[in-house]
Amino acid sequence: MSALATTGFIAAALAALWILLAGALSIVAARRMRDASTILSAARSLQNLVELSPARPLVVRPDSTIEADARLLREIGIEKPPRTLSDLAGSDNGLLAEDVDMLAKSVGEAALSSSRFQCQVRVGGSGRVLDVRGAPAPAPEPPGTMLLWLFDTSSAEAERSKLAQRLEQAEAALDALTRLIEAAPFPMWYRGPDLSLGLVNSAFVEAVEGRDAADVIARSSELIGDVNEAQSSAMAALESGKPTSRKQAAIVRGERRMLQIVNVPLPTGAVAGFALDVQDLEEARGELARQVQSQRDLVDRMTAGAAQFDSDRNLDFFNGPFAAMAGLDGDWLSERPEFDRVLERMREHNRVPETRDFPTWKAERREWFTSPLEVIEEDWMLPGGDHWRVVGQPLPDGGLRLFLEDRTEQARLASARDTLLRVRSATFDNLFEAVGVFASDGRLYLWNRRFSQVWGLDEEWLAEHPRVDEMVPALARKLVNPTAAAQIREMVRKTISDREPANGRITLTDGRHFEFAAVPLPDGNALFTLVDVTDSTRIEAALRERATALEQADRVKTDFVANMSYELRTPLTSIGGFAEMLAEGYAGTLTPAASDYVAAILESVARLSKLIDDVLDLTHGDSAAIVLERERVDIAGLCKMAVEKFEPRTKAKGQKLLPDIAESSGTVVGDARRLRESIEHLLENAAAYTERGGKISAKAWGDEEQAYVQISDNGPGIAKKDLPRVFNRFDRINHDPSRGEAALGLGLPLARQFVEAHGGKVDLVSSKSKGTTVTLTIPRAPR
């Protein structure tokens, strides 16, 4: 029993020991499992951290083999697991070969020195940049192993490039702004937070007469006042937080000028400023104020009343005549009463027209403020018999300008004028001559009984004031030559438009002869008169019948013109003399209108005297009969004087007068007056017969023996059949009376007569529609 018991005890002890050992082993295993789980969890956490990290690891071992992160290989496009660094290179995928070589060199150097390094590599075909940071790998890696971390810095590099570009642009803008401030024509400055000058431009330096900006800043030279005053102004801008502006006088470059000083606070606590020269603006404002005051003073001196109401219909301005005419007190008007109140006060003083419904009348005048018309005019007949002309002018701002003009005296004068007109009409009706007055529009304005009797016109029809062209058919029926009626019409029109008198003779179908004249009147109308010259015409016919048949018609005409010219000299001399005496004031001071009439008389006398001289010269017939002066004549100066004389006339017609006077024209020995008149006659013809906008050229040149003057135009020219008659005395190729003196047929004959008297000649070349050229050939000395 004891042996069995011992055996059982031993077995039991062994079982207990085994159980204890199994329990201990279980506890140890559980602890190791827990530790393994913790380590595994940490490893997974580290792996997640690596996965989430922006950097990818790469291990380079001492034998140059590498262990790369799979994600890194995907990012750089390597599909086959690399063995060494050189396997990371590729043209389209992987890193650039030169960058891999550089990286291998950096890794080798860092492994030998056990140091850290940093570089950048580029991914081929993508433009991406990787930042590489390397350091020795920690244990348990063998010595010489390098751990590389690769960061994708492509976006950061792009951002850095943008920042660099912006910085460059900002520097360029700052440089441009600095140049602009420096080139500014007005002073500019910058004050630091301590309000002392830190920057000034050239205009500031020039204004304070400094050497340069550094000198001005060092001396703290201020543009206006002292340093304390300038800093106080800048401090005021800082405290207000807004730009401040003030005007102050200053001495700039030795001259007193008014400047507008502007200080601008900056967020940094500094102050920038500039100064504008407003001296001219201040002077202009002062001048404007003086002009306004001058205009107000001028309005006060006007005889017409003037008042202005603002957009609220309150009186804004009035002059003295307005207060007097309206019968209102000036102090009351100065209180700026309303428009309606002004009209009511004027009504109390009988200064508005009488009306049954004054409120309606007043409301109608109130509508003038908003009237679309530029000017409203009314005639006011006042209870006292005064006659006013009232003009209302609406203003763009909604106001109204009012003018009152007293026309009482004009109305009385108009009544007196009507009386005079009736007296004049009665006088006209009893004249022996037939008289008709045509208005400026060509209508028959006034006539006498004799006028209607001569032409057989009905009074009722004449009362309708027919136009002169409407009267042509009625006049033609009474004339032997019906076409003369159209000549009368054109003569009346020419007198009205050109203000030149005209005359002529007509024969009626009943055998009577009349001389007519059209005379311009001062009021713009034309006076047409008919004088019965039947008896004198019969006497002239009898005298012509007694004339000898052998006497040539041209001689008769020439002698008659010559005699008439001599006979006209005596009364013309008397007219001119008495007119000059009137102009000199021997008969007392003349009115302006009378002075104009006298001037017109003198002008007509001079014109007629010249015409008579031309006629007398022409009636000598033979060039040898002309007595010439013998003096040295400058042809160039003569031509220039003639051109200058005719330039105003050609400009008035829109013609171009083109002189071309050569120095070779030189001088000749002859009569300066007659040579000048010859050139002027040619210019007169050219200007008269050249249409508006045409060209006239005046040339002069010469050689050793002769001087030449040539006048050309691009006018209508002369027909070939008329060329033989151009130098005939009093023979007119063109009978158009609008050509003036050129139409008398004197110019070319006189020019040829004067030039031939000097031993020269006149050549004329012309064709229809191609203009005319006349050349004067004048010998240097008379033969």
What topology does this entry show?
Elements: H1 2-52, E1 55-60, E2 66-68, H2 70-76, H3 97-113, E3 117-122, E4 129-136, E5 146-152, H4 154-183, E6 188-191, E7 197-200, H5 202-207, H6 213-219, H7 227-240, E8 244-252, E9 255-265, E10 271-277, H8 279-300, E11 305-309, E12 315-318, H9 320-326, H10 330-334, H11 339-348, H12 358-366, E13 376-381, E14 387-394, E15 400-406, H13 408-429, E16 434-438, E17 444-447, H14 449-455, H15 459-462, H16 468-476, H17 483-498, E18 502-507, E19 513-520, E20 526-532, H18 534-546, H19 553-584, H20 592-619, E21 631-634, H21 635-652, E22 656-661, E23 667-670, H22 672-689, E24 695-702, E25 706-713, H23 747-757, E26 761-766, E27 772-779
Parallel strand pairs: 22-24
Antiparallel strand pairs: 1-2, 1-5, 3-4, 4-5, 6-7, 6-10, 8-9, 9-10, 11-12, 11-15, 13-14, 14-15, 16-17, 16-20, 18-19, 19-20, 21-23, 24-25, 25-27, 26-27
Task: Describe the structure in your own words.
It catalyses: ATP + protein L-histidine = ADP + protein N-phospho-L-histidine. It holds the Pfam family PAS_7. Residues 153-180 form a coiled coil. This is histidine kinase. Residues 563-782 form the Histidine kinase domain. By secondary structure, the protein is of the alpha+beta class. The protein folds into 7 domains: 19-50; 53-144, Beta-Lactamase; 184-283, PAS domain (Beta-Lactamase), CATH 3.30.450.20; 302-406, PAS domain (Beta-Lactamase, 2-Layer Sandwich), CATH 3.30.450.20; 412-546, Beta-Lactamase (2-Layer Sandwich); 553-619; 624-779, Heat Shock Protein 90, CATH 3.30.565. 46% of the residues lie in helices and 22% in strands. The chain is built from 23 helices and 27 strands. The strands form 6 sheets. The protein has a 5-stranded antiparallel β-sheet with strand order 2-1-5-4-3, with helices on both faces. It has a 5-stranded antiparallel β-sheet with strand order 7-6-10-9-8. A hairpin with a 5-residue loop joins strand 13 (376-381) and strand 14 (387-394). Helix 16 (468-476) runs antiparallel to helix 17. The radius of gyration is 58 Å and the shape is elongated. Mean pLDDT is 80; it is low at 739-744.
